[in-house]
Amino acid sequence: MSRLLSKLSPLMRKSRSVRSFSSYETGPYLSLCVSAKPLPESGNVGEVVLFDPAKEELLELTDKTIPEEIVLANGIGASKGWGIFCDPQDRCVLISDFMNPWSCKSNPKLFTLPPLTPLPSCQTDVVWNVAMSTCPDEDEDWVVGIKSLGDQLSFCRPRRDLRWTKITTPFDHFPTSNLMYSKRDGKFYLPGPGGHHLLSYDLLHLDKK
Questions:
Q1: Which of 78, 98, 192, 194 is the most exposed place for a label (fewest CB within 10 A)?
Q2: Residue 191 and residue 178: Cα distance in Å, rounded?
Q3: pLDDT tens digits for range 10-67
Q4: What does pTM read for this prediction?
Q5: How far apart are CA 66 and CA 100, in angstroms?
């Protein structure tokens, strides 16, 4: 019997939204669902269903190997063609390219990051969005940024330091702001509502500017 994997966070499920991601080869896709079934020998294989809004077409990726760690994980976002998930048991963050149409069917890449934990008076159970500085396999100094609903930002440089740098945003202007990354500036940005405030986080120092 197939196991259906939801690629939506609890907040996104309530609003019936979907996650989007893109790669350098294609425009953005919307991830609709993933079905997986265990193989007799070991592992999981399944089908990924995507929607291409530019062509208004469904794209079905069949016979995709799905990492065991992902099967029961919750989807929390996507960036640059990679899906970002959270293990519901230990809160570890998982990053994989298995939903990317251009990734290897039989050998998807998987990176495991430390558990995502909240600062005092903050929460990390509901993730608002995720941004990465580059694809994990393209830059040794790749950075992952996670914006939780509320005041917390979490950054990790997996190949340099397997710890989260956790920051609280000032004031109460940014609970639902989208974290984004500028390749030109080498910084993460967090714009406030109406464009009245803009926070920047330097890629080299991750100091608030």
A1: 194
A2: 7
A3: 323 333 334 555 544 556 888 888 888 888 888 899 899 999 999 999 999 999 999 9
A4: 0.82
A5: 12
What's the rounded Cα separation, in Å, for the pair 173 and 97? 33
Q: Name the burial class of residue 38, with classes exposed (0-12), middle (13-18) and buried (19+) by CB atoms within 10 angstroms of its CB.
A: middle
Taking Cα atoms as reference points, which of 81, 69, 84 lies closest to residue 36?
69
H helices of the chain, where? 10-15, 68-71
- Token couple for 67: 């990492």
Q: Which domains does the chain have, with CATH numbers?
A: 1-76+98-114 (no CATH), 116-209 (2.40.10)
In the block, which residue shows the tokens 């500017």? 209
Q: In degrees, to the nearest 5, what angle opens at C-alpha 125 toward C-alphas 44 and 139?
A: 65
Judged by DSSP in three states, 125 sits in coil
Q: Output phi, psi for 30, to 5 deg.
A: -105, 125
Query: How many angstroms separate the CA atoms of 123 and 30, rounded?
Result: 27
Angle subtended at Cα 71 by Cα 58 and Cα 122, rounded to the nearest 5 degrees: 100
